[in-house]
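FAQ

Q: What does a record look like?
A: Structure on top, sequence underneath. For example:
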């Protein structure tokens, strides 16, 4: 059964409470457009310090980031947990000159694209990832 869930951790406010179904349907549509199936995706919204702790504990990285994806199943069937720092999203939105909502959607779909096998490690991969993100963002609300 396909499912997408959204939670908060710590003292953050859910960024789109009451609109979870809209976001879940969007992500299911994105998966279908890539011929993938979602088993279960769980998005956990948190603050910088919470995500930094995860980054240190599980990845041995000592820096802030906007998203950390833990894949449980990749490829045709997607399953995983994605932790998103709402503080990073807000700062990045300001830096990039976009709204918080636009940047949040980009980060949400970015994690899902990683589960689908897309990478952003090389300049070529990053270009492909950005193009995929843009395409997926164009599907929001359709």
């Amino acid at each position: 059964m396909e499912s997408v869930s959204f939670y908060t951790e710590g003292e953050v406010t859910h960024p789109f409470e009451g609109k979870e179904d809209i976001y879940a349907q969007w992500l299911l549509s994105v998966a279908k457009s890539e011929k993938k199936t979602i088993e279960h995706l769980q998005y956990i919204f948190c603050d910088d310090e919470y995500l930094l702790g995860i980054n240190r504990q599980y990845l041995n990285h000592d820096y802030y980031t906007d998203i950390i994806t833990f894949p449980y199943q990749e490829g045709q069937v997607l399953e995983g947990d994605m932790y998103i720092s709402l503080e990073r999203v807000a700062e990045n939105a300001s830096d990039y000159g976009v709204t918080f909502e636009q940047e949040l959607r980009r980060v949400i779909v970015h994690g899902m694209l990683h589960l689908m096998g897309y990478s952003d490690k090389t300049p070529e991969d990053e270009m492909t990832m950005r193009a995929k993100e843009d395409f997926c963002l164009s599907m929001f609300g359709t």
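Q: Is there anything notable about this one?
A: The domain at 4-138 is CATH 3.40.390.30 (Collagenase (Catalytic Domain)).
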